Amino acid sequence: MSKELVNALDALEVEKGVKKEVVIEALEAALVSAYKRNYDQAQNVEVDFDGKKGNMNVYAVKKVVEEVADPRLEVSLDEALQINRGYELGDEIKFSVTPKDFGRIAAQTAKQVIMQRVREAERETVYNKYSKYQDELITAEVERQDTRFVYLTLDGVEAAMAHNDQIPNETYRPQEKIKVYVTNVDDASKGPQVFVSRTAPGLLKRLFEQEVPEVYDGIVEIVSIAREAGDRSKVAVRSNEANIDPVGTTVGPRGQRVQDIVNELGGENMDIVQWDENPANYIANALNPADVLDVIFKEDEEKACTVIVPDDQLSLAIGKRGQNARLAARLTAYKIDIKPESEMENDDSAEVETEE
Questions:
Q1: I want to staple 140 with a disulfide (CB 3.0 to 4.6 A). Which of 152, 199, 280, 327 is the partner?
Q2: Do both 11 and 82 map to the same domain?
Q3: Is the pLDDT confidence value at 289 over 50?
């Protein structure tokens, strides 16, 4: 058994990257507990494991005292001097107390410790690998799905995509490869859990970084994203170089760059909006494609405004089911009231609040 255990520890270090010394330290601690549990002992004991030969010995550790109060923990100076004339008060002496059948208990304990260390090593490997990918875009293969999750494979590791992270009306077929955004890598007690999304705004940002070199390089910056996944998104961009048009650069020649992203997301419409340091201009841009006549900020309410549009642009500004105004509000973080030019005082104006 001793030789087999040493070989197992060597193999564990090579195959799983678990240091032999780490396992031995854990094994010795586990054997101390096993000894006390199986032999009903409460004294101070140590277990010494020989990492080369595999031999295991149990020692009772006793302190040298003038007068013994607890023989399980102490030894008299007179008795200590009979063992070795060099002992002094306060020294600790190890007495071998290895039971004859301790090898059987040690073998069982060693197996449990090694299995635990293997699981921990595998957990750590998965966590370290995928925690680096948090907030990143990766390609995964659809494995299966149930009523709660779509399960995907990432290099042999299973990831879960919850229902609210799935694009509505999008079908996920086994063995299909899709791009997903890693939202969280949780080092849970049952093992690392990788969670991914197709609806997160971060997915859209990473897709633009892939398709638009200027975004990846930071020449064009994505300032804000408002998204209703699978239907429509608004993306606010600005340029960090005066001679670069952020909207035109992001859209690409003949709209090819943004069209590639639209195709990846199953036809999700994209509004690329120019960010402006002037809030009024930014809000007007965000309501594109509607024309805006004026933006009036409310003095009695923070980050709230009334937007005046031509009468024939009201429906366009609000959008189908209020979507255009709702996305503009999210994009700019302003509460937006939209009023037609002819009814600026109409209390029935459309009101859209920023949604959390």
A1: 152
A2: yes
A3: yes
